[in-house]
Specification:
The chain is of the alpha/beta class. It contains 21 helices and 20 strands. It folds into three domains: 170 residues, Thiamin diphosphate (ThDP)-binding fold, Pyr/PP domains (Rossmann fold); 164 residues, TPP-binding domain (Rossmann fold); 191 residues, 3-Layer(aba) Sandwich (Rossmann fold). Strands 3-2-4-5-7-6 form a six-stranded parallel beta sheet, sandwiched between helices. The chain has a six-stranded parallel beta sheet with strand order 11-10-9-12-13-14, sandwiched between helices. Helix 3 runs parallel beside helix 4 and helix 9 packs across helix 11. It is globular, with a radius of gyration of 24 Å. It starts with 6 loop residues before the first strand and ends with a helix. Bound molecules: thiamine diphosphate and magnesium ion.
Length: 561
Amino acid sequence: MKSDLKTRHGGRILADALVAQSVKLAFGVPGESYLPVLDGLYDVREQLAFIVCRQEGGASYMAEACGKLTGEPGVLFVTRGPGATNGAIGVHTGFQDSTPMVVFIGQVPNEFAEREAFQEIDYRRMYGQMAKWVAQIDRVERIPEYVSHAFHTAMAGRPGPVVLALPEDMLFSQAAVADVPRYHTVRPSPSPAEVSALRELLLKAQRPFVLIGGGGWNRDACLKLQRWIEAAGLPVGTSFRCQDLFDNRSPSYAGDVGIGINPKLAQRVKEADVLLVIGARLGEMTTSGYTLIEIPTPRQRMIHIHPDAEELGRVYQPQIAIHATPRACAKALAELPPIETPRWKAWTEAARAEFEAWQTPPRSPGKIQMAEIVRWLDQNMPPETAYTNGAGNFATWLHRFHRYRGFGTQLAPTSGSMGYGFPAALGAKVTDPTKPVVCFAGDGDFQMTGQELATAVQYKLDVIVLVINNNMLGTIRMHQERHYPERVMATDLVNPDFAALARAYGAFGEVVERTEDFPAAFERARASGGPAILELKLDPEAITPRQSLSEIRAEALTKAH
Ligand SMILES: Cc1ncc(C[n+]2csc(CCOP(=O)(O)OP(=O)(O)O)c2C)c(N)n1
Ligand SMILES: [Mg+2]
């Protein structure tokens, strides 16, 4: 058999292995450490497109966004040492968001290993805590096996990133070896006994609450679960930055259980007697700093369903622990006899009314009213539009006032990683060019990965970026004013003219100073047909929907005296 196989160099074997895994897109920045891979990718360029990015941080975010949207591993290539360190941010993001990724890193030739050779890092140690598996392929003939193992691992149970290091000598050497076919996805399912125990417990509830979140969802699972929840008349919340797992317009939707939670929703979660948690880890941000639910035994009778067996019972001891993926869970629930009880009607209606009241936009200082702009987008953009963001107070307006319409309409890092939104928007656009994409970025946030404007122009990616410019690292300034009022330190920013910057890259750029000018500017940006930046000049006082910067400072000063 073996003699029939063609001899290939390591780079070509790897490129063919990716094609065998059905990879159509890879993101990265080239390096001399993996030249044979680039050569291999040349041969498969009709099947697999390589998006060359400007910095590995941006590339890793793009690969992460691609993985998040497709539910299949996002693929990233970075060079050794500096490339690997730059790329770490998207790998960490993927780990926290349970996003499948496969990351390839160049490595020094084996003959130089452990000498601290040029750009040498031991990736097992470096990436140990932010990947599901880190390995190095030392033998060329084992590339297909390692790649197959990597794809299986990234997808199994709780999805996440896998890292493979590629020693240079291994890539240049040759072997005659067979490709391994496409990976299987191992998805644990709930047993019939577990599902009926869940149903029994739920039927006893007076004040049930469903909390959904985490990774491993897809559109079908979200819709199935939504139908089941709506038929049962249950109220539902989404975990931190997973707001698109449930159509926010549904009468069952009660809001996001995340940072800056609606206090009434927090109260409702505390008062629930049965808490059905599907897919969410119940991390720090979802539990308001571990205050919503008691540790280790919640007061609510909790049913926790998670795709990672070891996550169950990690912090909370649920009444029923079910090891299952969200997809398998949604399928099992959809097959249950329907739960129809009028008992929860008033409770669910009240939760919805509180959500709607929470979404009523307040007036904020200045000529740009962010809540109104978010509302305008809601009313004027197609339902499948994806909204992306990184980290900063600017994102609050989007998360609080926008109504996400279902799976794949939110790309936001639960790791709170700045710089995510813009590359994620590009990753989304490359993955699905028909999907409208709007990125919300802060002035600080945008400048972390803004050089990917060149990538956007190169690949003609028509995303629209709103740079919400308050000339400061507003989040940190807000915390400073709360804890150390008037002692402003290292949070003021002198910024470029973002619209001119966009034009310098060959993109569309315009400044918007007043809310009423936004719709026309947005339409011009859309009509430009390419990447576009609208710089929104936000009054620094408009730091949160609830309080202005001066009010926060005054409150802190009063407390101090
Ligand atoms: C990579 C990274 N570095 C630093 C931080 C800490 N951080 C969180 S928000 C923020 C400021 C964001 O500023 P900007 O994007 O201008 O948004 P604003 O808060 O002003 O709306 C900083 C520095 C972070 N979350 N991520
Ligand atoms: Mg800012």
